[in-house]
Specification:
The protein is built from 18 helices and 19 strands. The chain starts with 5 loop residues before the first helix and ends in a 6-residue tail after the last helix. By secondary structure, it is an alpha/beta fold. Helix 3 crosses helix 7. It has a 7-stranded mixed β-sheet, with helices on both faces. Strands 7-6-5-8-9 form a 5-stranded parallel β-sheet, sandwiched between helices.
Length: about 525
């Protein structure tokens, strides 16, 4: 298997923004498929974060003064480097996460899409624009987007390239400095891209990757950044939101998901069943927008279930650095334990296993079969809680009304999928779902890949689209007053001047833009 050579990982660790002039602890990183050691990265400290933030803040001032088109040129070059080095990048992310090759390719495509979209729209979105002034002719008003300063990005392990670099791209294009805390299990994915960004011409001080424990590095970032972007659990998101609130800084978060798929009686069951395998088991189900709940019209539930279970049985579970595997490994013992407990709990309370249900140590230390359950209730751990693994439940429903009600009856509102007899029917159902993105006749990928549209975030804020860039800025209004100001002109008394101003206010409400 084409795991990058040890020398590659040794080189990548030099892109960590950690002071290595003195001896310090290191953290070993293992290949998920086998458990063997890939390399080791230095353990960062709060002092390393302080230094990284200070450097980023200094570099940001110079960078923000440059035209947005100059900043965009860097990411055009970076995009070309990602395309050129895509096989190598997929090797790195597979080694760290254990995901299948096609799921690794999703990350690379996401980086390409993000770099292309934001580099193209940034110059226009960030340009100054005029608005009508309070007093026509007397006032010339412009509004411009000003960078926040230094953005902290706390990235997860499941899509460690896309959710660290993909969020950093718009922040950097907006004129900010960025300090990234990668998950401790997947630092090389961020560091490999830090190297490419440096090759593309991004100043190294402007973009820092600080490796180390979250209890230390994340805390220091939250204490010092001017805006925080977080992807992770809802519990951690709430804690970070409180910390940001106390500092009165902006915060954006994508948190948990327990995403539904609705299959109506008139849907194409063959297509729906095949697509559901991808939608449920991408990255072994370790995807915030993957499907964990299938609501199927009871008139076709048996037929759909047979087709879906057959497709699951046909999926190839395995460790491979090519495209021969459909489903890869879980990433950690903790994830394996969660999935195992959820399945055991559900079975002990009456759920029936239709496919899978077992760990597969014969394939690797962290493999678990894609698992399909039925007769799942809210009393079971997997009923309402996110499993974040290869586990999905099928629920026959009486009609569309029940499907919509049950799909919306959850605290999450991230993604949904609809399969109906017609596109128009699918759209009507989508309009009633409480989800940031709804895919009709697909699972999640088209909405995610449409970088120009806002991506529903189950916490706060939006990823992608204009909001995905502008959230990293502050609007600044500049008003130039010309000819005369609001003081009464010579020879006009206040008792005449103030009624005149009120009369002007009454008149200008009829002008365009008021």
């Amino acid at each position: 298997m084409p795991v990058p050579a040890p020398a590659v990982f040794e080189r990548l660790k030099t892109f960590a923004a950690v002071d290595t002039t003195e001896e310090r602890d290191v953290c070993a990183i293992t290949e998920v498929f086998t458990g063997t050691t890939l390399g080791a990265v230095p353990v960062g400290t709060a002092t390393d974060v302080t230094v990284a933030v200070a450097k980023a803040r200094a570099a940001q001032k110079e960078r923000a003064a440059r035209p947005a088109k100059d900043r965009a040129a860097v990411f055009e070059r970076y995009r070309a480097l990602v395309v050129e080095n895509r096989e190598y990048l997929m090797d790195v992310v597979q080694a760290e996460t254990g995901k299948a090759r096609w799921a690794a390719q999703e990350e690379i495509m996401g980086l390409i899409f993000a770099a292309r979209y934001f580099s193209r729209v940034a110059p226009q979105l960030l340009s100054s624009h005029s608005v009508p002034g309070a007093f026509p002719i007397l006032n010339r008003v412009s509004v411009r987007a000003v960078p926040k300063g230094v953005v902290g990005v706390i990235a997860p392990w499941n899509y460690p390239m896309l959710l660290s670099i993909g969020d950093s791209i718009p922040a950097l294009l907006a004129g900010n400095g960025v300090v990234v805390k990668p998950d401790s299990q997947t630092p090389y994915s961020s560091l490999a891209n830090a190297e490419l960004l440096a090759r593309a011409g991004l100043p190294r001080d402007l973009f820092a990757v600080v490796t180390g424990p979250g209890t230390v590095v994340c805390t220091a970032i939250v204490d010092q950044c001017d805006y925080l972007m977080f992807t992770g659990s809802s519990a951690t998101g709430r804690t970070l939101a409180e910390q940001c609130g106390r500092r009165l800084i902006g915060f954006s978060a994508e948190l948990g998901g327990k995403n539904p798929m609705i299959v109506t009686r008139d849907a194409n069951l063959d297509k729906a069943a095949k697509a559901a395998v991808r939608a449920c088991f991408s990255n072994a189900g370790q995807l915030c927008i993957s499907i964990e709940r299938l609501y199927v019209d009871q008139s076709v539930a048996a037929a759909f279930t047979d087709k879906f279970v057959a497709a699951v049985h046909a999926a190839n579970l395995g460790a491979s650095y090519d495209f021969s595997a459909d489903i890869g490994s879980l990433i950690s013992e903790a994830q394996l334990e969660t999935v195992t407990k959820h399945v055991a709990d559900a079975v002990s309370k009456g759920a029936k296993v239709l496919a899978g249900g077992n760990p597969r140590p014969d394939l690797g230390p962290l493999f678990f079969e894609p698992t399909v359950l039925t007769d799942v209730t809210d009393a079971m751990e997997c009923g309402r809680n996110e499993t974040f693994g290869p586990l999905v439940s099928i629920y026959p429903v009486a009609d569309i009304e029940e499907a919509i009600t049950r799909a919306n009856d959850i605290e999450y509102g991230l993604n949904a999928s609809v399969w109906a007899g017609s596109k128009s029917e699918g759209e009507r159902i989508a309009e009633r779902l409480h989800a940031g993105t709804v895919n009709i006749d697909e699972g999640y990928a088209p909405a995610w890949g449409t970088t120009g549209a806002p991506m529903g975030i189950s916490g706060i804020g939006r990823r992608h689209g204009p909001d995905g860039l502008l959230k990293f800025t502050e609007p600044q209004t500049v008003v130039v007053t010309r000819f005369l100001n609001l003081d009464a002109p010579p020879l006009i008394s206040q008792d005449k001047w103030q009624p005149f101003l009120m009369g002007v206010a009454r008149v200008i409400r009829f002008l365009p833009g008021r």
